[in-house]
Amino acid sequence: MQTKIIAVSGKGGVGKTTISAATVRILTEQYPEKRILAIDADPAVGLSTALGVNIVKTLDDIRKEIVEKTVSGEAREAVDLLNEARFHIFDAMAENGSFAFLAIGRPETAGCYCGVNAYLKEVIAALADEFDYVVIDGEAGIEQINRRVMEKVTHLLLVSDQSKKGISVLRTIRSLSSELVHPDRTGAILNRVADQSLNAFVDLGDIELLATIPPDEEQLQNDVLGRSVFDLPSDSPLLCGVREALNTMQYI
Ligand SMILES: Nc1ncnc2c1ncn2[C@@H]1O[C@H](COP(=O)(O)OP(=O)(O)O)[C@@H](O)[C@H]1O
Ligand SMILES: [Mg+2]
Fold first, then answer.
1. What is the pLDDT of residue 168?
2. What's domain 4-248's architecture?
3. Which distant-in-sequence residues (6+ apart) come within 8 Å of 36 by Cβ?
4. What is the 40 CA–ligand 2 centroid distance (Å)?
5. For the chain, which ranges sit under pLDDT 50?
6. Which among 52, 26, 41 is positioned nearest to 238, based on CA atoms?
7. What atom of ligand 1 comes closest to residue 215's alpha carbon?
8. Pocket test for ligand 1, best of 8, 17, 18 (most atoms within 8 A of CB)
9. Contact criterion met (CB below 8 Å) for 43 and 107
């Protein structure tokens, strides 16, 4: 089976991390025998909390260690990084049981994520073969699409609220990704929709609407209590909506 790699993308604050975490939970329940990797590719972090995992080491930590250890060129670093990253990922997976987890971290150097994004792209390419499913919680906006970090992505899941601003980000990502990523399937989730009738004013262009998710009371509670998506009832509106979207785009 070709590795199915889904990237969750959209404006900040719309539910990307929550929906990425829900995707991981759904995969672990539906395919307990499959190898699943969750990647937090957002420097703003959050996927570990949503999944209830502890971060031991981030991609940026590993990169820094290697940069400190070696003065030779980029190529060497990338190879070392991949070996180390592999080691840490499988370590993390052993601890967790049902899925592996990798976070990009918060690269501080001069406010530029380009370096770690370049590594991330290599890591995705190298690790893809070792897993059946990869779930990437993307950075808000278009940067990682622009830098082709998401090159290997097979399924692009766009998330927005009903706002014009959120939808316009989706349309920009959609047109950039069809030039730079070529995913097999692209579709959108409208999240935290209190009034479905307003969807009539939402213009997604040629983007397929996969599911509409209402504000989920249980998720609000989860937030307050600092709980993970694994604490949601399996028939919660959030999990049902994400399941529907993943089914429609033939990810699961
Ligand atoms: N359908 C929903 N119902 C209730 N709360 C939600 C829903 N989707 C997301 N949230 C909450 O909204 C906040 C922002 O979501 P998050 O996934 O962190 O967004 P992003 O990753 O896009 O910045 C979080 O506190 C999350 O728990
Ligand atoms: Mg997030």
1. 97
2. 3-Layer(aba) Sandwich (3.40)
3. 24, 27, 28, 98, 99, 100, 131, 132, 133, 134, 135
4. 8
5. none
6. 26
7. 3
8. 18
9. yes
Closest-lying ligand to the alpha carbon of 44?
2
Confidence (pLDDT) at 122: 81
User: Among positive and negative, which fits the CA dihedral 138, 190, 188, 200?
Assistant: negative
Mind listing the pLDDT tens digit for each residue in 241-251? Answer: 999 999 999 99
Q: What is the pLDDT of residues 6-52, one digit of tens each?
A: 999 999 999 999 999 999 999 999 999 999 999 999 888 899 999 99
**Binding-site residues, ligand 1, Cβ < 6 A:** 12-18, 46, 191-192, 213, 215-216, 219-220, 223, 238
Q: How far is the CA of 34 from the centre of ligand 1 (A)?
A: 27
Atom nearest to 214 CA in ligand 1:
1
The answer to whether 21 touches 47, Cβ cutoff 8 Å, is yes
Backbone angles phi, psi at 2, to 5 degrees: -70, 140
Query: Looking at ligand 1, which residue's alpha carbon is closest to its atom 12?
Result: 15
- 3-class secondary structure, 188: strand
Q: Where are the domains of the chain?
A: 4-248
Q: Show the tokens assigned to 85.
A: 């990253």
